[in-house]
Amino acid sequence: MNSDETIVAVSSAVGSAARMIVRTSGPAALTLLADLVRDPVPADGGSAFPSHLAFSGVFCPAWVYVFRSPASYSGEDLVEYHLPGNPVLVEMFVSHLRGRHDLQIRAAEPGEFTARAYFNGRMDLTQAEGVAAVVAAQSEQQEQAGRRLMAGELARRIREPADLILATLALVEVGIDFSDEDVTFLPIDDLLSRIDQCRNMLSSLLSDSARFKPLGYEPTLILVGRPNAGKSTLLNALAGYERAVASATAGTTRDALTARIALERGYVRVVDVAGLEEGLTVVGDDIKSQMTRRALDEIARADRVILVVPVDDAALPVDAGRVADLVVRTKCDTVPAVAADASQRLASPPGPIPTVAVSALTGQGMDALRRRLDEQAFGRDEAATLTLNARHEAAILAADQALVQVRDLVEAGGAVELVAAELWEVLAQTGRVLGQVTPDEILDEVFSRFCIGK
Ligand code: GDP
């Protein structure tokens, strides 16, 4: 990153909008603005503009927002132009700005405003990732998780163990300095308990976030049921188009079919597997056994299992090797409403598995089913929690691994210098979560996932 250059980008979404935003950031941002303000022309190249100034006029009916370094998003001088939402006009405006080659103006790369904010210490790496997560969010939940990252929640929580390690390290190092004297600054038991405390903090960080899948992850719901239960028809009804081939001949669904379905809080993958016949015994290598094997494999990997049973079917459903999370009684148009209701209670699977009665034909119960699926996929628990990405998880696990080594070392009566070295490693790993000691390749990888203008 060359911070001598001033970057410019359209920061609003692509497509028509009432207003479009052009952002400039860098040493020449105020000079560019001064250039545009004709009346009066500031003699000082823009340094007279106070921070957090908003005014209208300039170039066309635009609102201009001035944020001076360091109190801006990027930490640099930053000027935002809120223009009428006309792409042609905005394009002209951007080329006009970029025309000042003498000022080293260039188009911003994806995520560059945020990258500058990170390098200028305006936010740590987890917060920068939060910005990307909010922009990329496809569900309310993902958006909230991104916001929590952005607000620095992960940073706060990783600092707890990091501070404890730092304090411990200080005591251990004092011990090294005074090793000739007969004083103990940190008894072994105390040291071990601090290590365990730290490990507990890290593991609760991991388990709190485990309830949520990584951003961009689409939960898989699998439809299980005997042939002719109405699975394909249900998939089609959910998808709103003919995704699966439904037919009256049992066993028509010959392979796993998947549809990406939008529910209230996000997208899910609904899979309709083939091959689940009565016995479900996997014998030999014939096509049928292979299909059963594949089906069982799919079921084992799915996030939720949806058992599909016709409303008039009192028989026990297929054994999918996994307890169903939701039962859908299909074809409820084929029995009178009251009976359909009663047969819900007669639902064959044991235990309190939530059940919905639907008719893919009439649409009855389909809204309720969608709500249930949403609940299954995204959970009922709205409680705020964290979303860790693979990078965070790897660093947290590495920190924990280093803690395990410190523990082993301490228990084996290892030299105090080695203990200190291992504690430094723990600190380095926790620092990595925040991007304090992050190699350039990882930073590039983080920021390249952004869109332009952020
Ligand atoms: P699959 O083998 O589980 O995928 O079952 P299909 O979706 O192919 O459906 C089997 C048969 O049941 C077909 O003849 C469908 O038209 C019929 N069917 C499916 N859903 C309904 C429904 O809601 N109402 C009625 N009346 N028939 C249905």
TrEMBL record:
Please name the PANTHER family in this protein's record: TRNA MODIFICATION GTPASE GTPBP3 (PTHR42714), TRNA MODIFICATION GTPASE GTPBP3, MITOCHONDRIAL (PTHR42714:SF2)
* GO molecular-function terms, A-Z: GTP binding; GTPase activity; metal ion binding
What is the purpose of this protein?
Exhibits a very high intrinsic GTPase hydrolysis rate. Involved in the addition of a carboxymethylaminomethyl (cmnm) group at the wobble position (U34) of certain tRNAs, forming tRNA-cmnm(5)s(2)U34.
Which residue ranges does the record assign to the MnmE helical domain?
125-451
This protein's species is Humisphaera borealis
Residues forming the G domain are 222-313
Q: Where in the cell is it found?
A: Cytoplasm
Domain named GTP-binding protein TrmE N-terminal: residues? 6-122
The record's gene field reads mnmE
Q: Keywords of this protein's UniProt record, alphabetized? A: Cytoplasm, GTP-binding, Hydrolase, Magnesium, Metal-binding, Nucleotide-binding, Potassium, tRNA processing
Binding positions for GTP? N228, A229, G230, K231, S232, T233, S247, A248, T249, A250, G251, T252, T253
Q: Which GO terms describe its biological process?
A: tRNA methylation; tRNA wobble uridine modification
Residues where Mg(2+) binds:
S232, T253
Q: Name the family the entry cites.
A: Belongs to the TRAFAC class TrmE-Era-EngA-EngB-Septin-like GTPase superfamily. TrmE GTPase family.
Kindly provide the name given to this protein in its UniProt entry.
tRNA modification GTPase MnmE
Cofactor note (record): Binds 1 potassium ion per subunit.
Q: Where does (6S)-5-formyl-5,6,7,8-tetrahydrofolate bind?
A: R23, E80, R122, K454
Q: What binding partners and quaternary form does the record give? A: Homodimer. Heterotetramer of two MnmE and two MnmG subunits.
